[in-house]
Design goal:
The chain has twelve helices and three strands; from the N terminus they run αααβββααααααααα. With 381 residues, it is mainly alpha-helical. A three-stranded antiparallel sheet has the order 1-2-3, covered by helices on one side. Helix 3 (68-92) packs across helix 4 (113-130). It is globular.
Length: 381
Amino acid sequence: MNRRIAPPDPVISSAVLLLMLLSAIMIGSASLSIAEVRYGDSLRIISHWMIYIPIGLVIAWAISSVHPDWLKAASLPLLGIFLLLMFAVLLFGIEINGATRWFSLAGMTLQPVELFKPAIILYMAYYIAAFPERLKSFSAGLAPMLVVLCAAATLLLLQPDFGNAVLLVMVTFCIWFVGGVPLRHLFALVAITIPIGLLGILAEPYRAKRFFSFTDPWADPFGSGYQLVQSMIAFGSGGLSGSGLGQGVQKLFYLPEAFTDFIAAVLAEELGLAGTLALIIIFAVLIWRSLQIAMHANETFERLLVLGCTLLIAISCMINLGAVMGILPTKGMPIPFFSYGGSALFGNCILIGMILSVQRHQSENSAEQHLQNSRKIEAIV
C-alpha cells in the first residue's frame, strides 16, 4: 500500500506564516536605525531575518514529513548529541553580556539551547510512552527522567540561563502530570524545586534585583527598571491604534533589545492595542489548534510530544508578553516566531515540525488501523 501523508494543517501553517509576516514588518521597522549605527547598513538585520525565515520554514516542512516513529527512534541519540553541545558551549562558546550561550560559526552565532529544548521534550515523551509501567515507582520510573532534567537545568544555570532552565522545568512537569506520573511524586518535587529556584534567584544579587524590579520599575528607572520603564512608555504611547508603522520613538535607542526580546513593545507603540490583540489572537489560534492535535493523537508518545512542543511555544510567549507588560519579571526570552534570532526561530520551527509530523501522519495511522480492524472482522466472519 502506498502511504500518503496529509498536507500540513492549514490553521497552524497560516498562524505561523502570519507571525513571520508580522515579524518581518516589525523587525524591519525596529532595526533600521540600530543597524545603520552598528553596521553602517540599515538593512543588515532585516536582510538576515529574511534569510532565516525561509530556512526555518524548510526545517519545519522537512521534520513534518518524518514519521513520528522515526522521531521516537532518534530521541536518545539526539538527547546525547545536544547534551554534549550544551557542555561544549561552556568550554568553547563565546561570551555575550556576561553569558556563555553561543557558538561562533563563520561570523554567525548558534545558541544550542534552542535545539536542546526540543530534544528534551522528545526524550520525555519517548520515555513515558515506552515505560508506562515504571511510572508508579520513583526509582525506576521518574528518577531517570529527573536525572536528565537536572543535568539540563544545571548546564543552563552554568551559562547562566535561568529563564530557559525554569521554562524546561515547567514544561517537563506538565508532561509528567499528563503522562501519568503519580501526584505524590510531583508534589514532593515541587516542594523541593520552589525553594531551590528562590535560592538560585537570591544567590546572585544582579539576578534578584532584576527579578524583583518588575514590582516597581520606577524605583530605579535608570538601572534595574530601565528596560521595563521604556517598554511601559512604548505601550502607553501606542494607545488604541498606535503611532503608526515606522513612527515609533522608543526603538530609537531608548528601548534595549528593541528588535529581539522587546519587539512586542515596538508593536504596541506603532500598532497600538489593535496590533497587540492581533498578535495574541494568532498565538491563541496556534496553541488551540496544536492542543486539538494532541488530544486526537493516536499514541501516548505522539500526544505528549505535541503537548510538550505546544507548551514550550505557549509558555515562552506568555513569559515574553508578561515581561514586556510588567506582569512578570523581566527575562531575556524571545517571543516565538516574532523576535529576531536565528537559533530561536530554527528551534521553534523544529517544534512546529514535530507537531505537524504527528498531524500529517494521523490520517495514515488511522487508515492503517481501520484496515487492520476490517481484516480482523473479515477473518471472524
